[in-house]
Amino acid sequence: MDARLRQALERAAEVERQLADPAVARDSAQLQSLGREHARLAPPIRRVWDDEIDQIARDLRRWVELMAADPDGWIPEWFELAFGLPPTDGRDEASRAETVRIDGRFVLRGSMDLVERHGPTGVLRVTDHKTGRARVADHPLVSGGEVLQPILYSLALEEMTGKMVHEGRLWFCTSAGQFKVVPVQLTETSRRAGLEVLEIIDRGIEQGLLAAYPKQGACQWCNFGAVCGPDAERRARRKHAAKFQDVIELRERE
Ligand code: SF4
Fold this sequence. Notes:
Blueprint lengths: L2 H17 L2 H4 L2 H14 L4 H23 L5 E10 L16 E3 L3 E3 L1 E9 L5 E7 L18 H13 L3 E8 L8 E5 L2 H19 L18 H4 L3 H6 L7 H7 L3
Parallel strand pairs: 5-6
Antiparallel strand pairs: 1-4, 2-3, 4-5, 6-7
Helix pairs in contact: 1-3
Iron/sulfur cluster (SF4) binds next to helix 7.
């Protein structure tokens, strides 16, 4: 969760606690000040807010139950393990401010939601949590370039720790995502697939052509709609397809 959002939620809960305190009720100045803050932080429609919070609580409970019931011997090792990012509240102490270079040429920075160690063998796996619907295939490699975290985080983790990484996975950890797990094992094939995507991105930068070229329907589910505007797909249809051959071929890959 975004640190500023968490702080705002914590402050809102604290303000509500203080407003319920009889001692505060007798202090009109403090009461007014807290009242103003409450009006600023309180949700516009309480019922909608409460329903959403209840849903989040149910999902969290189910998520923890599933983690606790994992029969395969995976033990949580690091949370929010960052690389190439400044240390901030909420990042794991094992994080490092330096970037990671994979395959000796691609510099990456990021933050892994969860890294686990397999008790019996000591190998690692990395998990990227997703809160939306699961719109990916069951056994992807890079899913046409749309699923990159499992392989790229695995490669970064391997580089950071020097340890063997078994797999990266997406975990759609809400009822909206039906708690679906999408694993991608780190094999020679998946390693190569991840590096090929980076090569394509690199080539785009080198050639000065890293323009938006969404496939049909992609913008509908994308979080960057506010950045790209409402008609990104229509504009893409007017671009010269020949210039996007790399991207078109990438979309064909598993
Ligand atoms: S909204 Fe922008 S980033 Fe998202 S799919 Fe469409 S063009 Fe791509």
